Structure formats: structure tokens, C-alpha cells
Amino acid sequence: MDTKSKEEENTLIQKLLKVSSGGQMDMDLKTENSSNGFSTQINLEKLQKMAAELILLGKFLVRLLNAALVFVTNLLARMLGSKLVRGHFHLMLSALLLFGPVLSLWVPRYSIFANSNNYLYRKFLKSTWGWTCIFSGSFILLLSISARHPRSLLLRHLSRIVVVGLLLCVCHRLLALLEDASGTCYEPLKGSSVQLLLHEDCTKLSCLRANMVWRGYEVSQDVLIVCLCCLLLVEEMSVFGPYLAQTKMSPGAPLRLIFLLCVVLLSLWMFLLLCLLAHFPKFPAQHLGGALGYLGWRGLYQGWYRLKPSWGCPALPGEGLFTTTDIHKQPQ
Questions:
Q1: What broad class describes the main subcellular location of this protein (predicted)?
Q2: Calpha distance 142→94 (Å, rounded)
Q3: Is the bond preceding residue 284 a cis peptide, omega within 30 degrees?
Q4: Domain that holds residue 99
């Protein structure tokens, strides 16, 4: 009997130990799960705090950039809209054309801008009108939308760019015909400086493609396009300053950004024109090109566009932004 009772006591003790060990394991598991959940909650809170700090930093940077954009565009708009700049910009451009070739006496011959295959020449100078058309057209479009112009007036404003493009196409064709009619093609002899007249009816393009020499009258079309684009950009952007002065609501960032890009483009065209005059002086081809660009601007912006509004006349820059008297008071 004693042995049986002892055995029963041992089995009971073992069962109690198992139950107590199982409960301890359950407590350990619960404690581990709770600690894992607490750490996960802490990580999520840290991520939320970091995200909130980044959002605040981003908002601060956006406000800072927007304030800088407003300050710079207001300053540039006031400068370009002044009578001094708009009324005398063509004189400054004429002085640059006249005295720019003198810089060829001091510029280094082996400068990066003395290479005609320079990146700026290839990417920008060869597509001057394309860049000007895109940026000036975008500025006119956004300015008209900001001023809530009717669709008919918007189309008239955009038609100015179309007219200048057609004028450049006509000038390019007429100048090409003039050069072909006034020039001749020569084939240089090997080992001699004497040149042999090859074809009188050969065009300039075919002559140059055949690696021969072309001699004749020439007008620099690069200078023509750059000068006309500079005058166009100044005319189109000069109305932004008076518009900012009279509007009650500040224009949005897209319009200001496009205006700033137009100013950068104008500076680039002026720099490339100076490089052409200093590193590749061609008298009188460049001066003739500049004179034709000036005549084109004078005939359009100072002549045709100032006529009474009609469907046959594109709108003058600023029409719909100011009163009629303000438009006619603009510097000529």
C-alpha cells in the first residue's frame, strides 16, 4: 500500500510540474509577443515622425523656392518692362553688332567657343527659332490664360509667333536664291593656290556638298535669326511687369517659371551672338543679317501689329491686359 501511494504521489507531482512548466512557457510566449508588438509600434511611430519632419522640410523648401522665384521674376519683369530697356534694346543690339567683331583681336584662338562644332552651337544655334517659338508661345499661352482672354484674342496673340515664323521661312528662301544667283562654284587644284571655275549654274548647297569652294555674296542667316528672336523675346516679355503691377492676384508658379526660362533664353542668344561676332567675324554678312532682323522687327512689332485690331492683324503684346490708351503709350 505504501509503495502504491508513493507512486501515486510521484505521478501527481510530475503532473503538477508539467502543468507549471507549461504555464511558464505560455507566460514567456505572451511576454515575447507583447515585446515584439511594442517594438513594432515604436518603429511605426518613428517612421511617422520622420515622414512628418520630411514633409515639413519639403514645404519649407517649396516656400523658399517660390519666394525666390517671385522675387527674381518681379525684378526681371520690372527691368524688362521699363522704358529704358524696351525703348533702347534695339540700340544696344546694334552697338553689339557694330563693335562685337572688334573683340576678335583679344579672344583666344583655341577657346572652346572658337570651335564651330561646339555643343551650344549644334544644339541651340542651329535651332534658334524652335527654342524661341516653344518658350515664347508657352509664355503667351499661360499669360492669356492667367488674364482670362477669350479664345479669339488668344489665337490672335499666338498668331504673332506664326507670322514671325513665316517671315523667317520667306527670308531663308529669298536669301538662298540670292546667294545662288550671285555666287560661283570653284574647284581647287591640288598642289596649287589657283582655283578652276567649274560650274556657273551650280547651287551653293551642291557646291559645298561636293567639297568645292563657293564665292559670292552672303547674308548671315544665323545673325538674322538670333537678332530677330532677341527682339521678339523682349517685346513679348516686356508686358509682364505692367501686368504684375495691375493684377490683384499673383500669377502662378508655371507662368513665372516660363518667364524666367524666356529670360535665360534671351541671355543665351545674346551670348551666342557675341561668340559669333568675336570668334567668326564676317563683314558685311553679319551686319546685313542683323539689319534684316531689325527691319523685320520694325515692320511687325512697330508697324503692322500697331494697326487697329482686326482679324487680319495680330494683337499687339499687352492687348487685353491694359486699356487702349496704355497700349498706345508703350515705347516705340
A1: endoplasmic reticulum
A2: 31
A3: yes
A4: 81-328
User: Which has the closest alpha carbon to 133: 224, 229, 261, 268?
Assistant: 229
157 belongs to a structural domain? yes
| CA end-to-end distance (rounded Å), the chain | 130
- Domain contains 12: no
Residue bearing cell 529704358: 84
HSE (CB half, 13 Å, CA atoms) of 222?
20
Overall residue count recorded for the chain in this entry = 332
Q: 322 pairs with which residues across the strands?
A: 319
CB 215 within 8 A of CB 184: yes
Model-level pTM greater than 0.85? no
Report the percent of the chain where pLDDT is more than 70.
Answer: 79
From its phi and psi, is residue 165 left (phi > 0), alpha (psi between -120 and 50) or beta? alpha
Give the type of residue at 247: T
- CA separation, residue 100 to residues 58, 87, 219, 275, 294 (Å): 46, 21, 17, 9, 17
What is the domain count for the chain?
1
Nearest to residue 229, comparing CAs of 101, 131, 156, 126?
131
Residue 146, in any domain of the structure: yes
Residue 219 belongs to a domain:
yes
What does the pLDDT look like over 171-219, one tens digit per residue?
Answer: 999 998 888 888 778 777 766 666 566 666 677 777 778 777 778 788 8
pLDDT in tens, 118-165: 888 888 888 899 999 999 999 999 998 888 878 888 888 899 999 999
